[in-house]
Specification:
17% helix, disordered N terminus, C8orf32 fold, 26 strands, 8 helices, 478 residues, elongated, 15-stranded mixed β-sheet, 2 domains, 5-stranded mixed β-sheet, alpha+beta
Length: 478
């Protein structure tokens, strides 16, 4: 089991992903595929993790960056691992510097260093203790993400064999790995590819399928027990979005958006103005609901909330926000009865919304797991922010209050912005943000709405910005 436990983290470090597939014969390529790619990680066909990698050009080579998390239990063995890595390599993919953060079964480590003149000089921090270490080698050493690309930048003819030195940031060792080119062979899913095999794991074959541009299509460990394969972000988006909204530790660090300067006493804010960079310009800019959004330039938006945002009168049709929907069963007898009971004492729409939000916050025990549909959570009394928003939305619609489900970011003091779901109810002549998780009406100004809708496809665009955006506070009013 030791070899298998090590392989899980190495899987995360090997990937050089691909979504574009080439059916052309193997040809020598001049450089690695410069792009961003996403992967799903599976055990026995169950998705247990993800990995994102970006390869970009630097002044004298390439930067290979990645983030991945996996949680699995196989043959009685449990493994929770996440890694954030960055490697600078030469034009020939040889390693020159690195920075790797890993958390394996709640044990965290950080190793960084440089490579020159046959020596790896590194600094390691584990449990608050920092140590320096040197590793000597002859020739060149390569990072994990370069191994699958290397053959295509030399000669990927069938039968070709390469023996390379690779740096293992988990064991802090330099290892020799043998990479064999087996030839053209379709992936198990029928995609034309070039098959490689390496001996990175003792006694276990690691099969790799790549396309003609050097993109990894799929990796298989232990005859398919663990599969890592390139995926369309649109398909992986709901999985990533659900993890982010649940604030699970599997993705917590990846989804956390740190902010400068920190916001003090966010619950006392009356208004907020933030600058967001790394934005995907293909996404809509959701207005109203207590906020105002402006596109400043490519990849850059500014959001104003609270008293800094204009409050336009909405002319949108409201019928859709009164109807039942999947997982928002506002016509279910128990939902209708409870909504009628709560509404009996309300003298206005504002009082109604406050009563519904307060009841939902008290009724549901907050958990990291999604409690499911409104009726399901009404009975179980547990769920995360998505669950709270669904149940409140169902009750509000049943009570005749137009309400919609929204998601975005909310500030947690001392940490930063995390992805979150809440609701908006149409009160008077405009949409008002309501947070039934934190029992807020209106929601505090740190609520930054990015998406509308409760279905997986509504929240899947999160994959285009998660781990990329940065936030700077321009104004904070109290």
């Amino acid at each position: 089991m030791n070899n298998f436990s090590k392989s899980i983290v190495i899987i995360l470090l090997l990937l050089c992903s691909a979504l574009n597939v080439s059916a052309e014969p193997a040809k020598k390529i001049d450089k690695p595929p410069v792009s961003e790619r996403w992967f799903g990680i599976y055990v026995d066909a169950d998705r247990v993790g993800f990995y994102r990698q970006t390869i970009s050009e630097s002044s004298d080579g390439y930067r290979m960056e990645g983030y991945g998390s996996v949680r699995m239990k196989v043959m009685g063995f449990s493994k929770d691992a996440s890694t954030r890595e960055s490697y600078l390599v030469t034009k020939g993919l040889a390693l020159r510097s690195f920075d790797v953060e890993q958390t394996i079964n709640n044990s965290s480590s950080h190793v960084s260093g440089k490579v020159a003149d046959g020596v790896v000089r590194m600094k390691t921090r584990i449990g608050g203790k920092t140590t320096d270490k040197q590793l000597k080698f002859k020739g060149e050493v390569y990072p994990g993400p370069a191994l699958n690309i290397y053959p295509l930048m030399r000669d990927a003819s069938p039968g070709k064999v390469y023996k390379l030195l690779t740096f293992d940031p988990e064991e802090l060792k330099i290892k020799e790995v043998k990479i064999s080119v087996l030839g053209e062979e379709k992936t198990p899913e029928g995609i034309p590819a070039i098959k490689l095999q390496n001996n990175l794991y003792t006694f276990v074959d690691n099969d790799i399928w790549i396309d003609g541009q050097g993109n990894t299509l799929m990796e298989s460990v232990r005859d398919g027990l663990v599969i890592t394969k390139a995926e369309d972000p649109k398909l992986l988006g709901p999985f990533i979005g659900n993890l982010a909204l649940a604030k699970k530790d599997l993705i917590y660090d990846f989804s956390l958006v740190r902010v400068e300067p920190p916001i003090k006493e966010p619950k006392k804010l009356t208004a907020l103005e933030v600058d967001i960079t790394g934005w995907n310009d293909a996404l809509p800019l959701p207005q109203d609901g207590g906020q105002q959004v402006e596109q400043r330039c490519a990849g850059n938006i500014v959001i104003k909330t609270g008293s800094l945002a204009s409050a336009p009168v909405s002319a949108k049709p409201l019928d859709a926000y009164l109807k039942p929907a999947a997982k928002i069963e506002s016509d279910a007898p128990e939902i209708v009865a409870k909504a009628k009971e709560i509404a009996a004492a309300a003298k206005s729409q504002d009082e109604l919304a406050r009563a519904l939000a307060s009841w939902t916050a008290e009724w549901l025990k907050d958990t990291v797991d999604d409690g499911g549909a409104a009726v399901e959570s009404f009975k179980s009394r547990v769920g995360n922010c998505q669950t709270h928003a669904r149940l409140y939305t169902a009750l509000a619609r049943a009570a005749g209050l137009p309400t919609r489900f929204v998601s975005g970011l909310v500030y947690q003091e001392g940490k930063g912005f995390l992805y979150h779901s809440w609701a908006e109810s149409f009160i008077g002549d405009r949409w008002i943000p309501v947070d039934p998780t934190y029992n807020q009406l209106p929601s505090d100004p740190t609520h930054l709405k990015l998406f509308e809708g409760h279905l997986p496809e509504d929240m899947s665009p999160i994959i285009s910005i998660i781990g990329k955006i940065k936030i700077k506070v321009l104004q904070a009013k109290y």
